[in-house]
Write a structure and sequence with these properties.
It is built from six helices and three strands; from the N terminus they run ααβββαααα. With 244 residues, the chain is mainly alpha-helical.
């Protein structure tokens, strides 16, 4: 007989719709805040590149350089070549958005330099997560299909079950990646905001604006975590309903 967990299809689709709506709200708010504060110059008049250099010195982080990467909001810290890459939105710009984003990426450099435990974990599983995110769901689905087609073969059902289990195990790596990413991103924002306040790049009111930009950006990772958790739950339910 099948191991039946109940029909949660309705609840699943309700949650999926809720996450989709949440994602649209978060993305819309982020775009609105980024655009709004990209047009407001920071009180200090300093550009993002200068602020990054000051923050690195203040945290005694050496050997990290600043580069330019094309695109909008494509900013990132590359630990392999120790480069903070600033996008067209940030590079050489002195807006609140530019400085906030640059300070956030500098926060990642500080995490790497200080050997932050969660940061090291994410960097360790990132390559595997990149691969498993592309294949894990398909492996799980193949296993479910085999289980569904094995009406008269217990052996084939078991094969499908373990193939599906392998896919779920691989997808768990993706879920763990998002699970550790959210607190890492929040921490980088806190480090950036602390530098903005202590080094006097922005006024108190502008600091609140910078925080709203960075927290809105962090919310996108919260959405990704919720989405990955729902996908993992769905795979588990699919496997359970077809198990003999």
């Amino acid at each position: 007989m099948y191991w039946y967990l109940g029909d949660y299809s309705g609840l699943f689709y309700l949650l999926a719709i809720a996450i989709m709506v949440w994602s649209l709200i978060v993305r819309g708010r982020l775009n609105r805040l980024v655009k709004k504060y990209s047009e407001v110059e920071a009180a200090s008049g300093k550009d993002a590149n200068t602020c990054v250099a000051e923050m690195l010195r203040a945290n005694e982080v050496y050997g990290v350089t600043v580069g330019h990467i094309p695109g909008d909001m494509t900013d990132n810290f590359n630990p392999k070549d120790e480069t903070i890459n600033l996008s067209d939105t940030s590079y050489g710009k002195c807006s609140i958005t530019a400085i906030a984003v640059a300070a956030h990426e500098c926060g990642h450099a500080c995490q790497a330099y200080s050997g932050m435990f969660l940061y090291k974990i994410r960097q360790g599983i990132a390559p595997a997560a990149g691969i498993t995110s592309r294949v894990s769901v398909w492996i799980a689905i193949i296993g479910v299909v085999i289980m569904y087609a094995s009406k008269s073969s217990l052996e084939l059902n078991n094969i499908g079950y373990w193939i599906c289990t392998a896919g779920i195990a691989l997808y768990t790596v993706v879920f763990l990646f998002y699970l550790v990413t959210l607190p890492i991103e929040r921490d980088a924002s806190r480090r950036g905001l602390k530098a903005m306040r202590e080094l006097g790049w922005v006024s108190d009111d502008q600091l609140k604006a910078a925080k709203s930009v960075l927290w809105a950006a962090g919310d996108t990772y919260a959405v990704a975590l919720a989405s990955s958790a729902l996908t993992l739950l769905r795979l588990l339910l699919m496997r359970g309903r077809r198990r003999r």
